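Study this one:
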Amino acid sequence: MIQAFILRFLKRRHFWRYATFSEVAELYASRTMRLFALRLASIFTSIYLYQIGYSLTFIAFFWASFYLLKVVFAWPSARLAAWWGPKHGALLSNIVSASSMLLLIFVSHPTYGIYALIGWCVMQGFSGCLYDLCYLIDFSKVKSMQHAGKEIGFMNIFEKIANGLSPLVGGLIAFWAGPHAVMLISAILFLLSTIPLFQTGEPTTVNRRLQFRGFPWRTTWRSFVAETAVGYDVFVTATAWSLFITVVVFAANKGENDIYAEVGAVTSVAMLASLVASYVYGKLIDRRRGRQLLIVSTILNSMVHAGRPFVTTPLGVVYSNIANEVATTGFSMAFLRGMFDTADLSGRRIEYLLIIEMVVNLGAASSATLLAVLLLFMDDVLSMQLFFAVSAVITLLIATPRFVLYRR
């Protein structure tokens, strides 16, 4: 049903495509379902760990380890994607993700909980890395050359719908049935998200090996530095911010599961702004305004981080989330368009995207490590406030890549 809707939606707007309509529709449908499954539980994972007794310092070090594992898994994931093809890689990723969500249910066990958490960390780290690479390779191959900005915009719209609705739905489910129910439903959705992928063949040549000889380092290294800052921002927005509003804004909630519904609601409310922004930004990128969009949105994102230490009310959280969605949507779409163009020009698509995956997770790991170190030596709230202030400066590096596409 989801794929049929997307297919009809695209046919009226994508008459220029080189790839078939079904190829891009199945990718959109599968990614929307996977992101819904992932966000359904992931936004509450840190809150769940905090609620069952883990300290903020432990949680920060846990996420640093998680992202470092993804750096380690990047090489074997790229080899699997090159040998089997991105669709088969995504199939394996979704099966592993479903299994890992079932492990998360046992994290609260007094004896075996830590082993379940380690198992989830390893399995989800491998699965997430493999899927990220497979998705980037697949989309990079099937996108339209002339109107890639609009296609990224449409993909972003479907992603934002999934990202916007899943915290609200997950929060309500956790409120009514507890967080374990969310993890079980997420596991089922991971498996279902694989179904749309195999109605067409692999978009890339399979049974190939990675080759770095002749890799164009001179034209790509700046994008690697900027992508490290993108990864740093991922942890700030997805994890550190959730912890901050849990500890500061919703610290006085009464019921055990109230926090899930409250965080889910304020996270989902920014969805409409991101949907509008995705459509507008896609047109701007195709009209050669990608570089300006990248710079302006990065600055706005930095300003949002600088203002986060002063947020103390649910309304303030809503305003901050809306501003962040507008900013993050802008720089991520502009960056993706430049990144895909660089992957095409490099002649080493999988190798380039492999390094991108490694540095984005290295950036997220460094972000989590910085927060963990601050938490070791300072008060919890003050540590997070200082962390956001430092992040406002570091994330400005997102605007530094010199993509060839934006110099033409």
About this structure: The longest helix spans residues 217-249. The domain at 18-207+215-403 is CATH 1.20.1250.20 (Growth Hormone; Chain: A;). The chain is about 80% helix and 0% strand.
